[in-house]
Amino acid sequence: MAVPLDPDMPRALEAPAAELFIESDELRDMAEHVMSEYSEFRAINDAVRESELVIGYAWETKPWTDEEELKPHTIAKVTKASPLWRCFGRIHVAMQFRQWFWDHFDDRQREAVVYHELCHLELDRDKGGNLKVLLREHDLEEFGAVMRRFGPIIPGRRAFIKSYLDWQHAQERPDPVQLRAVEQDGDDA
Ligand SMILES: [Zn+2]
After folding, report:
1. Ligand 1: distance of its center to the CA of 116 in Å?
2. Which pLDDT tens digit goes with each residue over 75-112?
3. Centre of ligand 1 from the C-alpha of residue 118, in Å
4. Cα 27 to averaged position of ligand 1 atoms, centre (Å)
5. What is the pTM of this model?
6. Contacts of 32 (CB under 8 A, 6+ apart)
């Protein structure tokens, strides 16, 4: 027996006017650039190249206005395919990127967001040697108010600020003295 349609059915269940997600080669290109550029993603890069790990890439086309709260994954996110969805398709992981932000960001910002999303992926093997994909949580969840009141006195937060200071230092001194290289030159001489 057919279930009658409820006239009060929420709008979200109606067919959308346009596709919310569109597959994106541009996002794929950026992600493949990032995973080959940074050695911390070597395992992911290898698994992708060997087609052991299949990542799908999509724009999320929903427009953004500044009335919407900017939460950690408003701009982009990764989702692992459930065992049921794995049964229907080849994709292990989907990366989505809000197209509005992509259009307003420069390449460096896009790269940083994609880098962030790739940091969520952790690869492991089961006893049979099959690839397992795990999703990693963020290093840090914090309130801006704690930082304003106390500064980085809680250990995990201190490590985060230290990372920022290391980055800042690297910007001020773009060509650090390569001590090891100098020593090696000395050995060769
Ligand atoms: Zn994240």
Report:
1. 6
2. 999 999 998 998 898 899 999 999 999 999 999 999 99
3. 9
4. 17
5. 0.79
6. 45, 48
